[in-house]
Amino acid sequence: MTVLPPSLPPAAPLLAWYDRHRRALPFRSPAGGRPEPYHVWLSEVMLQQTTVAAVGPRFDRFLARFPTVQALAAAGEGAVMEEWAGLGYYARARNLHACARLVAERGGFPRDAAALRDLPGIGAYTAAAVAAIAFGEAVVPVDGNVERVVARLAAEEGALPAAKPRLAALATGFMADPAARARPGDFAQALFDLGATICTPRAPACALCPWREGCAARRAGIQETLPRKAPKRARPLRHGVHFLLTDAAGQVLLRRRPPKGLLGGMLELPGTPWRDAPWTEAEALAFAPAEGLRWRRVPGVARHGFTHFELEMLLLAAAMPALAPPAGMEARPLVAAAAAMPTVMRKLLDLAAGGAAAEA
DNA sequence: AACCCGGGGAT
DNA sequence: ATCCCAGGGTT
Description:
Layout: H1 12-21, H2 37-46, H3 52-65, H4 69-74, H5 77-84, H6 91-106, H7 113-116, H8 124-135, H9 144-153, H10 164-172, H11 178-181, H12 184-197, H13 216-220, E1 237-247, E2 251-256, E3 267-268, H14 281-284, E4 296-305, E5 310-320, E6 329-333, H15 334-340, H16 343-352
Parallel strand pairs: 1-5
Antiparallel strand pairs: 2-3, 2-6, 4-5
The structure holds a DNA duplex.
């Protein structure tokens, strides 16, 4: 019998806790059920930097529209991007589609983490998660939950992200325990559930933890300070001006963003570039999608936070009898446009509609 | 190693 | 206002 790394507790208490307290989640198969690889993969991609609460309804909706990986592979990229609208990190949708086509062509998902890792949109974490949950491979997916749990168990005081490899190596050490190796998928999900409900970022509920006796951070009384994180830079404030051009039929003029980069491939209202300095209306009008119109300033501003900057937008509105989209632009009914656009653009539509939420 | 890439919910 | 989330890709 292999010896566990000295800093880790045995797996059995966690698995016993999981058998009693596991969360029932929309994308999770019932206890004892066989996970469908397509479902596991889809949910793991949706869950990348996205909360369980946000994924639940979107997972069901996505599955209703694309029931199998073959159906997803056969769909057009535009349909996939539209279904993803509002979920963020839109490169995930492109990679998801590309991955589906490879898997469909190949006749199924690779069954081990090393081969899964080569597919688009599947990194070290997702490869291990799918391999463990869908195929029972003895690997430990290391997400933010697992990093936090392991950092506390081992009282690892090195700061993230530099400590990431050390924490991943520690987590992998659990697979030396036969109890964990016998149930890799359950063990992974048990770590997720522990991190989400007990070993939380702030105010962990140590009294309820199945590992409370084996946790070095708790013994030292430093559990709330771990994992340590390197300081992050402040987000600058940027400015943009967008144009809402509508016609008598209720259509709005839209533009598609370049395929790569911020909001890649998504629809937007035409506008100025986003820059550090605020725009004057006169300056912004050079970017208007049509000339000779009477643009009227919509009162208020719309704000949206991105990962690395904050954006403040002004909105100018005008009407034409009938839209004649310039090259590279298109017209859609307002409601359909909102459904297909990222949240930052929906906030501009809310502003135009007098929505109080988007005003400053 | 450092950036870039959304959006939402909890505190 | 800040943190953080079942992270991946690029440079």
